[in-house]
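Sorry, can you check?
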Amino acid sequence: MDLQPLLEKSSCDHAHLCPRQILGVRMGLAGLETLGFAAASEKKRLLVIVETDGCFVDGLIAATGCTVGHRTLRVEDYGKTAASFVDTATGQAVRLAPAPGIREKAFIYTPNEPRHYFAQMQAYQVMPMAEMFTFSPVTLTQSLAALLSRPGIRTNCDLCGEEIMNEREIRRDGITLCLPCARGGYCQFQEQNVLFSYSLTE
């Protein structure tokens, strides 16, 4: 596949191209190839689980066509430039991560470029995929059925009253709870200058 249009697609929202976008595009193409896809998957067959956010992910999106809006891209923010590619028809999954020393190896492909940033910009476009990434077959800790769920299924949390989609509710002691009410969430509500969080406990 021609790399240049994908790099342009990735950079259009940034008004520039950076090494991590290139890394994302190359990783996306490597993931597709590893699972036997000739190009971006149709009919939502490919699921990509990324382990960070940022411009790296924009490169992955450009290469794979997977997006959060289509429910084919998920972010598990571990702060790692890595991603798992899952064929939802077969269950096959592979995790790709940058090979150790990839930044230093960039200088091998750009001997006349002493600047780290620009060496990576050039090298990541031509470096063989086998040298760029580690490839590790993985097994998901959740079943695909649980991970993908059934779109369009809705219920309401018995504690906060808010709607829950895609079977993300938890049943506990005969009541239906959203994940923040059951486990705690990423924020706390403020009411009359008193902080309180999603919780069953006082």
The chain has eight helices and eleven strands. Residues 149-196 form one domain. Residues 141 and 153 are 23 Å apart (CA to CA).
